[in-house]
Amino acid sequence: RPGIPLYWSTYGGFSLLNPVDIVAMHAVIEKLRPVYTVVDALMEVVPGADENSTELMGPALRTLLAWTREFDLGSDLIHHHNKRGGYRGTSAIKGVVDQMVNISKEHGQALIRAESEKNRDGEDIRLSATLEVVDLPHRMARLVDAGTPARTGPHLTPCQAWIKDYIESSSRATIAEIQAAGAERYSARTI
Fold it and tell me: What is the pTM of this model?
């Protein structure tokens, strides 16, 4: 849509295992300054790598993590299940991410489930929904709640609750002051 700065790149041989590609992608991120990225899927950006190898996957994952920190960049990394329904590959994958959500759907069923497998700084996610295709000017899909328990009252993560308490006791605090005060508990990015 005009006016919305949306960029994408389809897989064209970019590899987080190739230093030349890493430098080139860093330059693109630096130029465009995105606020959010989606890598779909992990194995597309580490072509031919043994996903069970910490020696290969670790540096690639740390490169992605470094970019999120350097550019204050929100990011989702999509990685597919193994045949048993768990995440595949080295434990370095789970170790480097702040949150890992297992999204599943039974073959032939409309119900989609999402459940936290790891959540470093927040409350675990557990929800279910159905995917419904609707005909509007453009064919679209939307998620429809499928019985996820409703929450009553405000829902705050532990970090949000701490920030709320801090602001209530220091109403004129700046973001930098809040980050400094919470540095022992939470990362500046989380705050």
Answer: 0.65
